Amino acid sequence: MQPQLQAASIETDKMMAKIEVDKKEADETQKIVSAEEAIATKQAEEAQALKREAEDSVREANMKLEKTLEEVKLLKKDHLVEVKSLKTPPKACIIILGAMCILMQDELAKRGQKGIIMRNVEG
């Protein structure tokens, strides 16, 4: 029985040494994982902040778009005729109408109409 106890003791010592090595490796791996987790958490927080900022920007842009569309609905043909009747419309009118043409390009394309070519206005 004594040789079996010695063999078991030697086997236990070998196993304890292996466990000690495995524990050190596990501790090192845990440190690496913890560091990577901290980096990932920081990146996730930054991504969440960017998402909130983008959503706020989109919400603000949509509100401005809605307001603009309401204002466009108030335009009447008489307003455009008045501007057209001017021999040389004021520069502000030209800029605003140019902006409207740019904004309406998608709508014109849906209707199959060609876009409007703007010329550079200096004044």
Q: Would you write up a description of this structure?
A:
This protein has three helices and no strands. With 123 residues, the protein is an all-alpha fold. It folds into two domains: 1-74; 76-123, no CATH class. The longest helix is centred in the first third of the chain and has 73 residues, at 2-74. The mean pLDDT is 84.
| Estimated share of beta-strand residues | under 5%
- As residue ranges, the low-confidence spans are none
Overall domain count: 2
Number of strands: 0
C-alpha-based Rg, rounded:
37 Å
Determine the structural class based on helices, strands and strand pairing. Answer: mainly alpha
- What does the largest sheet look like? none
What is the string of helix and strand elements?
HHH
Mean pLDDT over the full residue set: 84
The rough form would be described as rod-shaped
